[in-house]
Amino acid sequence: MALFLCLLFLLVSSATACDRCVHQSKAAYFSKASALSSGACGYGSLALGLSGGHLAAGVSSLYKDGAGCGACFQIRCINSTLCSSKGTRVTLTDLNHNNQTDFVLSSRAFMAMANQGVGQDILKLGIVDVEYKRIPCEYKNQNLAVRVEESSQKPNYLAIKLLYQGGQTEIVGMDVAQVGSSNWNFMSRNYGAVWDTSRVPTGALQFRFVVTSGFDGKWIWAKSVLPADWKTGVIYDSGVQITDIAKEGCSPCDDGSWR
């Protein structure tokens, strides 16, 4: 973990440290949002509640082996005749295997980049040139949540899915322990937003997360999340929310003029 944080610091410090950097690429779209909700992050139908169906599949540099799942972006196409200067916000829910575009959006998100009344015209283009930037995810009155996956088998195996992750960060490490204990067991990312362990403590469970923040990272501690009688298929409130922003390296920084 110390090596990861050191490398992260070196990467960011090699350029101007910014809250947001603007990137240029292309974006296409899927005709059905269900194609993205059933994607590599594993959100399933829950993805549709993350950003009103404004979903995105991102290339591997954005997906980050699953660490990018749930990340929020503001994206706009650069055709000023068709597209608004503000663009739209999307949540990453899938891996885009086509390197010709950084994003494949749901059709709802693709149309939302357009000026009023010309949504169908932008759909006809299929692929458009875009600018995008990472932005904080905001879930009003909603904490980070933990869903116990159906593959979990007490007391030998626990798999959880993280939902409603706020801030502009990635969760890069996770541990579990019995509430009140300091005997932590590490969890591994199984795929996407799903973490698991075969070393399941007994009793009620607490979690701690390593998230990217500022130049490096920090621990966030959810002191009481799963009850002793936790059940599969149930979503539990962690009692905490992430609001941190991880710095990016670029020059110049985004000036915040997307309005």
From TrEMBL:
<feature type="signal peptide">
    <location>
        <begin position="1"/>
        <end position="17"/>
    </location>
</feature>
<dbReference type="GO" id="GO:0009505">
    <property type="term" value="C:plant-type cell wall"/>
</dbReference>
<keyword id="KW-0732">Signal</keyword>
<dbReference type="GO" id="GO:0005576">
    <property type="term" value="C:extracellular region"/>
</dbReference>
<feature type="domain" description="Expansin-like EG45">
    <location>
        <begin position="38"/>
        <end position="142"/>
    </location>
</feature>
<dbReference type="GO" id="GO:0009506">
    <property type="term" value="C:plasmodesma"/>
</dbReference>
<dbReference type="InterPro" id="IPR007112">
    <property type="entry name" value="Expansin/allergen_DPBB_dom"/>
</dbReference>
<dbReference type="InterPro" id="IPR005795">
    <property type="entry name" value="LolPI"/>
</dbReference>
<keyword id="KW-0325">Glycoprotein</keyword>
<dbReference type="GO" id="GO:0009653">
    <property type="term" value="P:anatomical structure morphogenesis"/>
</dbReference>
<protein>
    <submittedName>
        <fullName>Expansin-like A2</fullName>
    </submittedName>
</protein>
<comment type="similarity">
    <text>Belongs to the expansin family. Expansin-like A subfamily.</text>
</comment>
<keyword id="KW-0964">Secreted</keyword>
<dbReference type="InterPro" id="IPR036908">
    <property type="entry name" value="RlpA-like_sf"/>
</dbReference>
<dbReference type="InterPro" id="IPR007117">
    <property type="entry name" value="Expansin_CBD"/>
</dbReference>
<dbReference type="InterPro" id="IPR007118">
    <property type="entry name" value="Expan_Lol_pI"/>
</dbReference>
<dbReference type="Pfam" id="PF01357">
    <property type="entry name" value="Expansin_C"/>
</dbReference>
<dbReference type="Pfam" id="PF03330">
    <property type="entry name" value="DPBB_1"/>
</dbReference>
<dbReference type="InterPro" id="IPR009009">
    <property type="entry name" value="RlpA-like_DPBB"/>
</dbReference>
<dbReference type="InterPro" id="IPR036749">
    <property type="entry name" value="Expansin_CBD_sf"/>
</dbReference>
<feature type="domain" description="Expansin-like CBD">
    <location>
        <begin position="156"/>
        <end position="238"/>
    </location>
</feature>
